[in-house]
Specification:
This protein has 201 residues and is of the alpha+beta class. 28% of the residues lie in helices and 19% in strands. The strands form three sheets. Strands 5-2-7-8-9 form a five-stranded antiparallel sheet, with no helix packed on it. The chain has a two-stranded antiparallel ribbon with strand order 1-6. Strands 3-4 form a two-stranded antiparallel sheet. Strand 7 and strand 8 form a beta hairpin. The longest helix has 17 residues.
């Protein structure tokens, strides 16, 4: 009987530990993937090319109004073209088919745990552009990784359920290098844009 209790206790402890990962001091590590992943169909059809771009905080330098809307609120693509100065784009990465599949797999799965909450700020520096076989932009997803917020084309509206930390990791994996990860980086970006005349305050 004594051996039976020891065996049952061991099985119970092992099965409980199997369900979560712990760090060195035994505190559970929260993963970005939830237990119940909901997978959806991607709404854009006819995608020929997927492009990742990065730029300095668009809110600091984008002064172009579009249809009377201020840069913060305007549509970022109209008539299949960007409505902001595309010369400010610092990096462009065209995804291969394998990378496209990995990106779309992240986008179609509602994987983010509820504790990743958006902040009041919005300092976008990254965007996904979806193009058709005529190289026209048919959809976009712009986001601010540090503020946990995004702006999307209407055909992707409400589709963002992935964790920004996961998307950030994917951008880095695919070759995007421009990230502002702390206040020092932010200050350097601001001073650089000011020195180039993009900021007047």
């Amino acid at each position: 009987m004594k051996y039976l209790i020891i065996i049952l206790t061991s099985i119970l402890i092992f099965s409980c530990k199997n369900g979560e990962t712990q760090n060195e001091i035994g505190v559970p590590i929260v993963k970005s993937v939830s237990k119940g992943i909901v997978k959806r169909d991607f709404p854009l059809k006819g995608i020929s090319k997927v492009e990742l771009v990065s730029y300095y905080d668009r809110i600091l330098w984008d002064t172009l109004k579009h249809k009377g809307e201020r840069p913060f609120q305007k549509e970022l693509v109209d008539n299949f073209k960007l409505t902001f100065d595309s010369t400010m784009i610092q990096e462009r990465v065209i995804l291969n088919k394998k990378q496209e599949k990995e990106l779309l797999n992240l986008m179609v799965c509602d994987t983010c745990v509820s504790h990743e909450m958006s902040a009041a700020c919005y300092n976008p520096r990254h965007m996904i552009l979806f193009r058709d076989n005529k190289n026209r932009i048919i959809g976009y997803d712009e986001f601010c990784i540090s503020c946990i917020g995004s702006r999307s084309s209407t055909n992707l509206d409400g589709f963002q359920k992935y964790c920004y930390s996961d998307m950030s990791a994917l951008f880095k994996k695919f070759g995007i290098k421009y990230f502002v990860e702390d206040s020092k980086d932010e200050q350097e970006e601001y001073l650089f844009l000011k020195s180039k005349g993009y900021i007047n305050y």
